[in-house]
Amino acid sequence: MPAGKARSTADTTHRYPAGMTPRRLLLPAIALLAAGAAWWFGAHPGAVTIPAATWRIGKGTEVKQGQNYDELAAETPFRLAFACDETRHVYVFSHNPQDGTVQLFPSAELRSDLTQPLPPGRPVLPGQRDGRELAWTTRSQILPLTTFIAIAAREPVPELEQLASHLRRWSTSVLADGSMQVTKPGTGASSEVQGKPGEPWASPLLQAAADMFTSESLVNGPMQPMAGRAGVWCTAWRVKEKPGTAKPFDPQNPLLPEALKALQANPAPPDRR
């Protein structure tokens, strides 16, 4: 055997313990790194805290995931499944040119088992009331695209907190049966309505979030971080009313929610004094 080759073999023998090769030494090192990573994420459960959201169409067990630019029948129920391992402040809004900006969550008039901020876990908004599943619905006779925005944040978002008292919002407090309706904000100068029909998004932050998802095909899963907003994530979903699914408007018989129709058909007896 050549001298050079012999020296190479001798060097290898002195560098590694008997029966060990570089690959055999590397495997324990990899195992140590894996154990260290497992310890880190086990000891720091908040290390991965990007919130995730899924738009759900339907109620109960008959649900499917929403897709961007969905075409849905008028008054289709939908919900938002949210997931995060830390407490998050979550805000949900809708907008289209015909209907303006409406706040879905949170709402002072929405009686639900879910309140702001949402605790760690897997809640489904808007939650439940008295054990009954709540759901928003697409608005009937809204022809333009409707954009739904969900924003999650580590801390309260000041401009969205201030906006809440000026927006029309979803409520369970309009009717005695607790059905979901859209209502105006309270009275008074501090409750002047913003985001009226025909107006753009009521907040530049909401407009920026909507602009992030104009060409997205996947709108479910990890939420996207907002540029220049540390600890704020968002997602958006666009839907359009399926033609022919809304009842035609009759000025002599205006469209009413089912709960209001029941009241109209069975008015209270006159007060006899």
Describe the structure.
- With 273 residues, the protein is of the alpha+beta class.
- It is 21% helix and 27% strand.
- Strands 3, 5, 6, 11, 12, 13, 15 and 16 form an 8-stranded mixed sheet that branches. Strands 1, 2, 4, 7, 10 and 14 form a 6-stranded antiparallel sheet that branches.
- A hairpin with a 6-residue loop joins strand 15 (224-225) and strand 16.
- It is globular, with a radius of gyration of 28 Å.
Task: Report the sheet-strand fraction.
Answer: 25-35%
* General shape: globular
Could you describe the largest sheet, including whether it forms a barrel?
8 strands, mixed
Number of strand elements: 16
The proportion of residues forming helix, as a percent range, comes to 10-25%
Order of helices and strands: HHEEEEEEEEEEEHEEHEEEH
Whole-number mean pLDDT: 80
Uncertain regions spanning at least 5 consecutive residues: 5-14, 25-44, 250-256, 258-273
What is the count of DSSP helices, taking H or I runs of 4+ residues?
A: 5
Structural class: alpha+beta
The radius of gyration computed from the alpha-carbon positions, rounded to a whole number of angstroms, is 28 Å
Span of the ends, CA to CA:
122 Å
The number of domains: 1
